[in-house]
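explain this.
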Amino acid sequence: MMPRAGYHDGSIHWMPAVPKTYDRAYFDKWYRHPEHSVAAPAELRRKVALAVSLAEFYLGRSIRNVLDIGCGEAPWRAHLRALRPGIAYRGLDASEYVVSRYGRSRDIGLATFGQLQYLRFDERYDLIVCSDVLHYLKAAEIRAGLEGLVDMLEGVAFIEVFTRQDDPAGDLHGFVARNASWYLRTFREAGLLPCGSQAYLGPRLERRIAALERAQLAF
């Protein structure tokens, strides 16, 4: 694949050979096929435990609910329920395949990230997850969706993003290689405050950030 210059954010975009479709074949390839899958169950389990621990540390209590944006087939759901039985889970994904097959059984609704600008629910969320999503989206959609994400965030957002400075494995079809500084600036403008390990506090928990964590905001 060859990169080309892209949007005004100074990013690099990988040229897709064919339109990208998140159907069953996509998930079979990237999540189940031994030659392509990079999602080891043990690694995901540790990642979920990390996100839960961070949210509970800053909230000062056990988490009660989770919003998983761009959840795919909802691999986080089982690990979350293993850690916190009875937790309220809501997934959102733009894949019609995912929603038609798993929407009812795994609590997944149909929505793009950008639609969060207008989409609201009856509660705020102790933990919001958005893993391996934003680096495939246009800058305008990221900014729009962050508005809703921050508004619905009670505790911690785990936003896993890879940048131009990283060397990601897996699906690079449509990957947008932005600078890390672009994401930090965009998250800060949306009201998110970094607390380490790809996690961010919402404005309601600003008082819980220590001075050394606040120092990251200068970059």
Remarks:
- Strands lie at 3-5, 12-14, 65-69, 88-93, 108-110, 125-131, 153-160, 176-177, 193-196, 199-201.
- The two ends are 31 Å apart (CA to CA).
- The first helix runs from residue 24 to 32.
